[in-house]
Amino acid sequence: MLYVDDKTGASDVAFQPGNPKIMYAGMWQAYRKPWIMESGGPGSGFYKSTDGGSTWTRLSGNGLPEGILGRVNVAPTTDPKRVYAMIEAKKGGLYRTDDGGKSWKLINDKNQYRQRAWYFNTVFADPKTADTVYVLNTALYRSTDAGKTFKNLRTPHGDDHELWIDPTDPKRMINGNDGGATITVDGGDTWSSEMNQPTAQFYHIATDNQFPYRLYGDQQDNSSVSIASAGRGGGVGIEDYYEVGGGESGYIVPDPTDPNIVYAGGYDAEITRYDHRTGMTREITPWPRNSMGWAPANLEHRFQWTAPIMVSRHAPHALYFGAEQLFRSTDQGASWTAISPDLTRNDKSKQLSSGGPLTKDNTSVEIYDTIFSVADGVNANEIWVGTDDGLIQLTRDGGAHWTNITPPQMPEWATVDQIEVDPARPGTAYIAADRHRLDDFRPYAFKTADYGRSWVPITGGIPADAYVHAVRVDPARAGLLYAGTEKGVFVSFDDGASWQPLQLNLPVVPVHDLAVHGDSLALATHGRAFWVLDDLAPVRQWSAAAEASKAYLFAPQPANHTVYRTSLRSLRFFGGANPPGGAVIDYWLSPTFGTPRESDEAKANDAAKKDKAPDPLASRIKLEILDAAGNVITTVPEPEPKEQGTPAPARPRPNAPAKAVPGEQEQAAAEEEEDEGPPKPKLTHYAGLNTFVWDMRYPSATPIPHSPLWAGSVEGPRALPGNYRVRLTVDGVSQTRPLVIAPDPRGTATPEALRAQFTLHQQINAELDAVDKTVLDIRAERDRLNALKAANPALAPRIEPVVAQMTAIEEVLVQPRARASEDALNYPIQLNNMIAALGSLVDDGDYPPTVQDQQEFVQLKGEADRQLAAWAALKAGPVSALEAAR
């Protein structure tokens, strides 16, 4: 083991290729506090071991830089005598030995390869050629002359940190940079996309009031983001995203009166005003002097790396921006006024240059004694401020007077990450603070109910090492709080007195901010992008009574007439998931009734067995959707058909798109070919919370197995906006809750227009159902007649003409030769597909049917009804007579 002291750790360890006993290590003395970062010191050094790490020798002199070292990275080569080392020092740069470390030469000291050594400085040797070496900095550089000169290998994103080189094929490499991971197979000439990795590190989150609402945030080492919470395709894709100005580190806040106007921040006092109508960005900083590289003590103003931006929700919706003072603008940033004195401790000892004894690094990350959070009060004159040096300040007169209301329990030099004011309870606020950069990982959160005259800690139940980034209020239920911590998200039902995880399927990841928007909870994670919990109904309605119930039905949150596609196949690139495509219905089952949840592996192993085995609980639980008059629209599970031999009406897969879209048709049809039509919706009956998504459609037409539809669907019409009811029955005991389907707020269709659309689609579906059932009936009767002919060949002269008539009717109603998705190009579609396709046309969007739609339905119905009548006559006459001859 190699140990120096408690201020020093290893910056790199590398083995000599072919001889693992020879090792090189860089030791790095470094530390970071909120106000300073230090790289380099007596503990830093360069070491070699020849016995697999049992003993180490410090390398110095013999051409290596003298004096204090900083970060050291090393790359042995295939030549056992050649080693490269990137060394941070006054005379730092790329060093090389050609005699196994006995002597060294400074090969390249250009700043572009060694700048910001604490952040970059990595070096990698080609596994085949000792003359080829890579250094990583703001770009990826390759040398083929042993480090003398370098060429820039352009990767998809800047700031390169890691490189893996295939030991058997050096042209295959994986590069890790500030944008993610990217792969080359041609030595760096081309690279794979980084637009497939949900690894954004967000600092904050904001939402607007559009529909679908959009999420906003700045990503570390990347751009600002505005992205839709739901996409038009099968998910949220690249087409649903755009940048909104600002930089990588600040807040982003849309204007509450106009979501086209967005304020975005960045480091070095940056704040911009973006207008989405024009795509133009205007710099509106209150202090337009560029101060990059200067120590905070020398600056007129101190703006933090992630300086807070707030737009008041109270008229006239003033814009606020925090430095050491709080600035206010009432003209969208064209002018600013300081409305406070310095609200921080202003400790000059914590305003020195950052970086260490070798390389200064004043980026504003360590600018200290700043306003770190700002919160809107219950009126326009009330503003709460938190600082990164541990203070809480409050004004109730628009900034004329300020009061220090810091909790006495607040630990020294804590960073006040967020302040949350309860808009429904004057004087009530919550703060989240942390000291992790001071080696204190404990959670700190406090509540006041009297404008800061007294505070109580509110961290019970949060793990001791899960420091808190933000606490947010749920406006729908008093005392319901959410906390974002370094280890996930937590919920409190008792105003912070106790907390429990709300992790669900969320990865264990830092949650830096949260936003409650309508019925959703949106998270800004630092490493796994945005996440949204779309359904807060069971959280908001959770109670001891619900938990004690055998079964409990939660009132569904309002659904929207818009149904989102949820199949990612329609996206051209990687995409995020859409919200559930329908009305979300949650119900709770007690452990005495429900079945234990299985692991994903167990589910996969038992899937086939369970599909065939009877479900013992299926007959004991039932869910029904009723209209306002109490008529049952649909029942889950669907009742078994009364007439044996007639297939039960099947519904589409939950959340299936209303009609095939490019890229989905072949796959969707292939799935249809493999089964007897779409599976029926099922209810889960796990112990605990269960969720069912009603697609907000009336029952589907009967499908014809193994008969793909071209641009059509058997789906029933969408339920109209209005009032509905949900009824859950468990062991004969029913519970009913209201369900509202709201109209799409973007739509212009009148209720009468939507009713006309619904009515025609209902008529189309009824006709399609009649046609498909007739086809199935013809096929069943034909099978019986053919069986009769086989058993009694003497009847063949009578049976064969009748079967020929049956087949003639069938082939007008359906294309029997179409078995694959594109067979329609070879075998023309028939009446059932034409009717289904018309239904999909009518169902498209929120519009009344066209005159052509109505005329086409009249014509198709007439053609179909003639065939149905012909079958009815044939069945009642010759077919019945033959059946009687059995």
In brief, what are we looking at here?
The chain has 886 residues and is an alpha+beta fold. Among the domains are: 8-153, 7 Propeller (Methylamine Dehydrogenase, Chain H); 542-746, no CATH class; 748-886. The protein contains 9 helices and 53 strands.
Structure write-up:
There is one protein chain. The chain has 886 residues and is α+β, with helices and mostly antiparallel strands. The chain contains nine helices and 53 strands. The strands form 14 sheets. Strands 1, 2, 3, 4 and 5 form a five-stranded antiparallel β-sheet that branches. The longest helix has 41 residues, at 751-791. The termini are far apart.
Query: How many separate helices?
Result: 9
> Ranges with pLDDT <50 over ≥5 residues?
642-677
Q: What proportion of the residues is helical, as a percent range? A: 10-25%
Radius of gyration: 34 Å
Mean pLDDT: 93
Strand segment tally: 53
List the quaternary state of the chains.
Answer: single chain
Structural class category = alpha+beta
Cα end-to-end separation? 92 Å
Q: Determine the strand fraction and express it as a percent band.
A: 25-35%
Shape by Cα distribution: globular
User: What can be said about the biggest beta sheet?
Assistant: 5 strands, antiparallel
